[in-house]
Amino acid sequence: MRRLRLIFVWVLFPVFGAIAQEKKLSKEEAVVKALENNFGIEIAKNQIDIAENNASVLNSGYLPTLTGTAGATYNNNDTRTEFPGQLNDDGSPRGDIEVNDAESQRYNAAINLNYTLFDGLGRFYTFKRLKEQYQLSTLQARETIENTMLQMFSVYFEIARLTENKNVQMQALNISKDRIQRAEYSFEYGQNTKLDILNAQVDVTNDSINLLNTEQQLANAKRDLNVVLNQNLNEEYEVDTTIVFIPKFQIMEYIENSISNNVAILQTETNLNINAYDIKVNKSGYLPTIGLTGSYGWNRNQNAPSAFLTGAVFPGTNSNVGSMSLGASLTWNLFDGGGTTVRVKNAKITYANQELLRKQVELEVNRDIQNALAIYENRLKIYQIQEQNVLTNQNNFERSREQFQLGSITSIEFRQAQINLLNAQTNKNLAKYDAKLAELQLLQLTGQLLNVEL
User: Fold this and answer.
1) Which portions of this protein are annotated as coiled-coil regions (predicted)?
2) Separation in Å, CA 280 to CA 120, 285, 338, 339, 406
3) In terms of Cα–Cα distance, which of 23, 21, 25, 14 is closest to 168?
4) Is the pLDDT of residue 411 over 80?
């Protein structure tokens, strides 16, 4: 009766455990949290914002420049004017004239406008280059997101694997505890020796240690995921252990379109476009530059009093209400010592190198996809074999337990059947998540990691 009660607790443990378990962290929720909170992804988003600012019309050179200037000058002078040997109209000697605290002010203000009508199409191609640079930044951010998602799922599935291993080891521990009680009952009735009790106690100790180690590994893995998700390191949760594999025909369809979706290849193509615009930007140095200038100014001069003519003291004011000027300029660098020619040649060489790099990346991506596909298919087969192996060992364990209860086999033989089942279950868990990670790596290479439901 006591044994039946233990079996009842063992069978219903997953049910009661599910009631008391922590909150569930689904794969979809983990993706959302990573996209919103991960530091690397946040930095990548900021880089996109910088590239977008650079590619705006405010940074294109198409808009004119407008500057304003203003100034004021104040003078205060004491002057003395001498007239040696000069006579007034009545024949008397002409005396000196002194002017003290003679103040003068000057004011000016102007607005200047400069606009480039034509610069050899340099700014036109520079603006297009900035647009391509923005596209490159988005691809680099996408690569960062893909790598982060792969890292996140790697840790997520490690938590799932350890969770399943923990459940398996808890079941093994319960079975070993049940063996102790059976051995004690049998010893009381003289059906076995003290050695069977000691063997069962040793197995309980080993199972307990294995369970503790798995729990510690599980706690560490959860903290690793909390770092990726940028949340409280001690956040507790349960993960989804359900794994669904993508159908083979869909995988092959992704592979066929990988050249147009792989982020590394797309980056090389964008860099190729940037290099093409570099050539055109440098060629603009062969053409003239035409510009317009305009200005509007205002001046006011308040002159200091001075002595002139008949010796009277006269202040003076000169005010220019406003003046406008317009102008055009043409600059053509007929020969710059060969600098433009060298820059154009170097830009063409850089473009040729980028073409070679693109071909190399395409070849490497094709190789990586074929390798990833082979690894994925191999791990999927291993997982299927391990599933069958669990069924075989489960059947062997059940029969061994029946034989052990009847006394037909020893506790050592029963323990070996239990260990075989435990190893088969943990190997199956490892194979399952290894196969899923191989699938994710294949999806990343085909450019579909962010486009499918996992």
Assistant:
1) none
2) 10, 9, 16, 15, 89
3) 14
4) yes
